[in-house]
Amino acid sequence: MAEDDSNPHEQQQGDHGSQGQGEQGQGGQAKSPGQDKKDKKKSPLVRIILIGLVILAILGAALYWFLTRNEMDTDDAFTTGRKVAIAPHVNGYVTQLLVNDNQFVHKGQILLIIDDRDYRATRDKDAAALVQDKARIAAAQLGRSIAEKNFPGQLVTAQGGLKDAQAQLFKAQTDYRRQHSVSRAATTQQDVDYSKASLDQAEAAVMEAQGRLQVAEPVKANIANTVTQVEVANATLASAQADLALADLNLGWTVVRAPCDGWISQRNVEQGNFVQTGQQLLSIVEPEVWVVANYKETEITRMRIGQKVDISVDAYPFLNLHGHVDSIQLGTGSSFSTFPPENATGNFVKIVQRVPVKILIDSGLDPNLPLPLGLSVEPTVHFE
C-alpha cells in the first residue's frame, strides 16, 4: 500500500528523466524539435540529388553509346610487316662483313662477301672445258662433212675393186684350164704350179674385194653415225655451258646483296665465320608496316573491307595513325594452330574466337620514327 501511495508527480519526473537519458545516450546530446525539422527537409533534397546523378549517368552512357555505336576497337592488335631472311647460296668463309645491326640498306647493296677463290678456280676450269668441247664439236661437224663424201666414194671403190678381182679371177681360171688342157710336153710343171697359185690368189682377192664392198655398202648408216657423233658433241657442249653458267652463279653468289630496302635485324654472322648454304645470317625488315587486329567473332558483323580505322600506338601516344581495313582472314587463329580444336569429340566448350583483320596504315607515320614490328596498338574501326 505504501508503494501505491507514492506521488504521481515524482513518477512523471522519473519518466521524463529516463527519456532524456535515452535521447542523450543515442545522439550524445538531446535533439531539439527544430533539428528534427531540418533533417526532414534534407531527406528529399538528398533523394533528388541521387536521382539526378543516376539520370546523368544514364544520359552519359546513352550519349557514349550513341557516339560510339559505329565504332569497334580492340587492344589485341600489333604491328607487323615483311621479314626477309638472308641466307647464302654457297659455302665458305666470310671475308668481308659490310653491314651492322639496325642499319638501313638499299636493294642491291652488298651485305657480305664470301671467299671466292675455290669458285673462281672452278669457273676457270669449266671455261677451259667449254673451249675443248667447242673444238670437239667443230671436229665432229667436219668429220660429218667428210663422211658424206668419203663413204659413197668408198662404196664405189669397193665395187670397182670387186670387179677388178673378179677379172683377175677369170684370167687365173683361164690360165689354169689352159695349163691343164695341153699335153705335158707342151708345158712345164712350174707353169702348172703358177697357174694354180694365181687361181688361188685371184679367188682370195675376190673374197677380199667382197668384204670391202660389204663394209662400204652401209653408206647411210655410216653417215648417220657421224651425225650422232655431232649430236653427242652438241650435248657435251651444252653440259659444259651449263657447268660454266653454274660456276658463274656460284662465283656471283659469293657476294651477298640486299634483295630489298629495309633495316638489318637478327644479325648472327661475323667476319671470318664459315657459313653454309641455307644458313640464316640476318633478316631485313622492309619499311612497309601494317596492323593485325584480332577482333572477336561477334565484333566483325558489320566490318567490311575499306572501312576507315584510327590507330593509336602505345609506344608513341603522340602519333595519330589513320588507315583502312584491307582484308579479313578466312579463318580464326585457332584454326591455323599446330593442334586445331576438334569439336566432334563431344567435349565441346563454346569459346568466343578471334579473327585476324589486316589494317593498312594510310597516313600519320613519321619517316624519322619507324615502327618496329610487334608493337601494341589499339585500332578503332569506323563502321559505315
Describe, in short, the structure shown:
The protein has helices at about 10-25, 35-70, 115-180, 190-215, 220-255, and strands at about 70-75, 75-85, 90-95, 105, 110-115, 255, 260-265, 275, 280-295, 310-315, 320-330, 355-365, 375-380.
Description:
- This protein is an alpha+beta fold and 384 residues long.
- It folds into two domains: 163 residues, Efflux pump adaptor protein, beta barrel domain (Elongation Factor Tu (Ef-tu), domain 3), CATH 2.40.30.170; 137 residues, no CATH class.
- Helix content is 48%, strand content 21%.
- It contains five helices and 13 strands.
- Strands 1, 2, 4, 7, 9, 10, 11, 12 and 13 form a nine-stranded antiparallel β-sheet that branches. It has a four-stranded antiparallel β-sheet with strand order 6-5-3-8.
Would you spell out the secondary-structure blueprint of this structure?
Elements: H1 8-27, H2 33-68, E1 71-73, E2 77-86, E3 92-97, E4 104-105, E5 110-114, H3 117-181, H4 189-216, H5 219-253, E6 255-257, E7 262-265, E8 274-275, E9 282-296, E10 308-313, E11 321-328, E12 354-363, E13 377-382
Antiparallel strand pairs: 1-13, 2-9, 3-5, 3-8, 4-7, 5-6, 7-9, 9-12, 10-11, 10-13, 11-12
Helix pairs in contact: 3-4, 3-5
What's the CATH C level of the largest domain? Mainly Beta
Percent in helix: 40-55%
**What sort of overall outline do the alpha carbons produce when their principal axes are compared?**
rod-shaped
**Strand runs, count:** 13
